[in-house]
Amino acid sequence: MSRLIRNCIYLGKNTLRDKTFFFWSILYPILMAIFFYTAFSGIVNQEFEPVDLGVSPDSYFVSIFEEIEILNVHEITEEEANEKLLSDEIYGYVDNDLNLTVKESGLNQTIIKQILDQIVQVGGLNVPVEQVDMMVDYTISNNQNADTLIIIFYTLIAMVSTYGVFTGIETVSLIQANLSEIGKRMNIAPLRKSDFIISGLVGGFIMNVISNTLLLLFMHFILKLNLFTEFKYSMLFILLGNLFGLSLGMMIGSSNKKSTNVKTLIAVAVTLFLSFLSGMMSPDIKIILDEKIPILAKVNPISVITDNLYKINLLGITDDIYEGLGAISIYIIVLNLISYGFLRRKSYDSI
Amino acid sequence: MVVKVNKLVKRYKDLIALDHFNMEVKEGEILGLLGPNGCGKTTAINCILSLLNFDKGEIQIFDQKMTPNSYEIKKQIGIVPQEVSVFDNLTVKENIDYFCGLYIEDKHLRKQYVDEAINFVGLKDYLKFYPSSLSGGLKRRLNIGCGIAHKPRLIFLDEPTVAVDAQSRNFILDGIKRLNKEGSTIIYTTHYLEEAEMICNRIIIMDKGKNLVSGTNEELKSMITTTEKIVAGFSDIDEEKVEQMRKLPHVIDLVKREEDYIIKFENGINNLSNLLEFIKDNQLTYTKLYSQLPTLNDVFLELTGKELRD
Amino acid sequence: MTVYKYFIKIALRNKGIILGYTIMLLVFALIYGGTGSEKIVNFEETRLNIGVINHSNGELSNTLVEYLGKNNNIVGTKEDEDFIKNQIFLQAANAVIIIPEDFEEKVINKEQSIEIFRDDRKVETYQTQNQINKFISFANATYGKGDFDLSNVINALDNSVDVNFVKTSNGANQDINRWFKFYYNFVSYVILAIYIAVIGFVMNDFTHMEIENRRKVSSKKFLNYNQEIYLGQMSIAIFITSILILGSVIIRGSQLSEVHFSKYVLNTLVFSFSALCLVFLINNITNNKFFITGMSTILSLGTSFISGVMVPQEFLGERVLKIAKFFPTYYFVAINNKDIVSLLDVRYEIFMQLLFGLGFLLIGLYFSKVKQKS
User: Fold this and answer.
1) What is the domain range of residue C22?
2) Please, which chains are in contact with A (at least 3 CB pairs closer than 8 A)?
């Protein structure tokens, strides 16, 4: 036991002093969080600005539009309007017959269209306009959490939870005589391979959990994001993500003889790509994929973690987490079986 | 017997790396494993240490069969691999302590051993240095320190002086002798003849995965017919004179290498004076003339027809 | 030309990086291209999947459901909060509404009555809320003598205005244009990431050789050596940029005439120039492989996020955009997003990118001078 701990400490020290670890596991996630925050906080905290609308000067409706708060009315001629539409100075132009001209579709254009529709619809109702009270909201919204872009941060957390992948690669390389020079020493020493791997993995696990915690603390205290309502279950998924990362790393590490640098790049590429598919860079990608290839979200481990974090914390659904836990557990078991196959050999055909 | 290797065969696909290789190492000796690059020295060591599996043959260490799980045997072995193999992000002291700790569990004993190893390889002033900030020679010393700190009974050193400056090389060679004096049996591979001649009690010469010969330095040299080699340079000599020289008594071979002639004799008496006489009689002017006793290179050359080093 | 040849050879050894980023770009371009276009063409409200639980079963509620069904698809659901949330999460439904038993009474009293679950991730689901409120408000306006005039409401709601799309003078099709904007904006990310990593790695390999060569060759030859290196960098840059431009031609080749394609090409070439200058600067600051990997990742992702590649510029905060203006990517994205009549319309942004390129070049030269002195 004391041997295991000693091994753990030294391997931990070796990793901790490695600037690659510092960059990928600590600095990079925090930088990503900052990028997301700067980019998306604009959307989250966006104050609604009035929509610029061009209206024909002799239109009967000018006074009506001017009363609508969210519109910023410009009285211009049709020729001027075309130019201003193209340069995005106005989003729509209304002629005397309430026909709308736009450059493209978009949120602001939709708002204008709905206002115009409503004007003609109220007109078509044949009741005095005063009777139409549009100010009442008849719906009770059941969405407690409106901060939707938080899902991006869940993806980031999911991705980073798998960053034990680097320690997995490193640990395997250190014990395999055909992968590293140190591996030769280890194989000649009176040391059980399994003991070494276990201590390497435990060390890697602890360090990655610490780096995850740093990221979470950063998000919570510096970016002031409220990510977790269900702490217990969330941690369960994050820890499972860690185990998945370590297992994936061992598999990548043991299955081929490429250099550690190349393996690290493979690991970064794989996790980044899976995260892209889980909607990290643009949530639209995930929504599109969920619509077209729904199975993807169930087999992409980073999606599984992201989705469950979202469900657990934003929707408060916890009774079907077992499907997700099961999926990742299967991955972990399969990956480890594969690695076991590669690691089992005691002596090599060639070094 | 410390190590006994019997008819070891190792193939890499079509290539036969070891072809019925035999080796015996006695307690207390420094055995030199000598041969050109790619002759199978490192492969042999890796097989002996159970790092590589092999096709045929037997390997015993300390009279027991060596397997990947022979932890009791492994405890008594130290290895200094060809490449510097240490942790980049552990300091000199941490590295030695780490590797020593794989063998020695007792904390106090380990501390003592680590300090001794550090003194032994002369890295006392570099305890807190990381390997990347050490010079090539110092890295090699660290590599050795990591392999020998646990005071193994049997030490493998695989070309520990490759690409090392003269100062560190002498330091390392002296160290190996000291380790031997302290009781370790040493297996030393190299393709530097001078080193093997300097420190080894016994030498095995390998070529193409086979043992060529083995014996002490002197035994090996006595095996070959050449006993004296005279190197001569002339300012004026023609073909005819060279042919006459070739016919002098006891000359077995005469070759021209660059500007010099190398004349080999089969016995060592009066050869130089015979040659001098010939020079005087023919009124030749020599620019250099000296006699050489056979080296291991000559042994290798005679056995294989090729130079050990190119 | 041995140096040049060797340079190209080492650079192409990093094909993993080039391929990886290029494939990522193409995959996203295809995902993006495969969707969205239909809904934009017609400028119609999106048909959503709406789950309805109707406890009222009065005329008002039934007509409301009928009205919703005209513009949306009604899907089955279950009155269980977890079930509904899951259904929405899985996008089986985009919104679910629950109509209470005392619906009519509440409507007449102008009280909140319909419980609604929306998919927060989809902005379009606001329209469901609007449709409901509009329907009820209209119905309430017709309420008199204990009755709603619902057929009148339905008729009125059928009205809508016509939408025309402005004709751009260059005939650019906005929907196709949208795809090209997305593609080329993403290209800036890929160019920065590949350039910095690939050229940086080769330069790292070369520094050792360079030191050798400095000793061996005369100063005249050293100049030649550097020329071949820069020629190599340029060739690699042109090669990568060509692949990326070619990607758009392969995917949307038939539609090139419908967008201002020369704008995108010119813009990409100018951006490539400034990116190459940035690489020159970075290589003069460091040739540490680790630092180069970091720069490649952080600079490319960072500038993309703040300059409107990942998130449109109009959504970014003013302060973020102010920072973004210190990077050429901002101007590159601005050109892609701009609808132009002639290339002269983007001269300012082109000029800015060139200016940045020159700036990087000058600072790089300064650093190389400093290095030579020490």
Assistant:
1) 2-37+172-373
2) B, C
Inside any domain, residue C167? no
Q: Which amino acid is at A13?
A: K
Indicate the pLDDT class of residue C37, thresholds 50, 70 and 90: very low
C74 and C140 housed in the same domain: yes
User: For the residues B33-54, what does the mean pLDDT come to?
Assistant: 89
Q: Are residues C281 and C306 in the same domain?
A: yes
- State whether C174 and A311 contact (CB < 8 Å): no
Q: Do chains C and A touch (3 or more CB pairs under 8 A)?
A: yes
Which of residues B183, B202, B222 is at a domain's end?
B222
Query: Which among B56, B57, B59 is positioned nearest to B48, based on CA atoms?
Result: B59
Mapped onto helix, strand or coil, the DSSP state of residue C224 is helix
DSSP C121-162: T-GGGHHHHHHHHHHHHHHHHT-BTTB--HHHHHHHHT----
**Of B234, B232, B229, B273, residue with least CA distance to B251:** B229
- For helices C289-307 and C328-337, the axis angle rounded to 10 degrees is 40
Cβ of A185 and B85 within 8 Å? yes
CATH 3.40.190.10 fits A51-131, yes or no: yes
Q: Strand, coil or helix: what is B250?
A: coil
Check residue B255 and give its pLDDT: 85
Residue C164 lies in a domain: no
Confirm if B272 and B227 have CB atoms less than 8 A apart.
no
Q: Is residue B38 part of a domain?
A: yes
The residue from B222, B249, B276 where one domain ends is B222
Residue B250, token pair as written in the block = 């006891």
Which DSSP category does B256 fall into? E
**C195, C237 Cβ separation under 8 angstroms:** yes
Asked casually if ipTM beats, i.e. exceeds, 0.90, the reply is no
Tell me the mean pLDDT in the region C121-149: 83
State the Cα–Cα distance between residues A187 and A321, nearest whole angstrom.
Answer: 42
User: Is residue B71 classed as helix, strand or coil in its secondary structure?
Assistant: helix
d(CA C231, CA C243) in angstroms, rounded, equals: 18
Split into its structural domains, chain C has a count of 2
Residue B212, classed as helix, strand or coil, is strand
Task: Please report, as a single letter, which amino acid is at residue B171.
Answer: F
Task: Find chain A residues with C-beta within 8 A of B158's C-beta.
Answer: none
Range of the domain at B241: 228-304
Cα separation, C284 vs C362, whole angstroms: 11
Please say whether the beta carbons of A132 and C138 come within 8 A: yes
Distance between first and last Cα of chain B: 35
Here the tokens at position C302 are 């960072």
Instruction: Give the separation between CA A163 and CA A23, rounded to whole angstroms.
Output: 12
Q: Does A220 touch chain B (CB under 8 A)?
A: no
Give the Cα separation of C270 and B159 in Å (integer). Answer: 55
At residue C169, the pLDDT reads 54
The CATH number covering residue B206 comes to: 3.40.50.300
Q: How far apart are CA A316 and CA C81, in angstroms?
A: 10
Helix (H, G, I), strand (E, B) or coil at B26: coil
| Chain A environment of B75 (Cβ under 8 Å) | 190
C-alpha A206/C-alpha A161 separation (Å) is 12
Give the number of beta-carbon pairs within 8 Å between A and B.
84
Per-residue pLDDT tens digits for C216-244: 555 556 667 778 888 999 999 999 999 99
pLDDT value for B147: 93
CATH code for the domain in which residue C108 is found: 3.40.1710
B251 falls within a domain: yes
- pLDDT score of B247 more than 90: no
Q: Do C321 and C182 have their domain in common?
A: yes
- Rounded Cα distance between A91 and C94, Å, is 27
B–C contact: 3+ Cβ pairs < 8 A: no
| Nearest-by-Cβ selection for B51 from A3, A177, A191 | A177
Amino acid at C123: V
Distance from CA of B151 to the nearest CA of A (A): 13
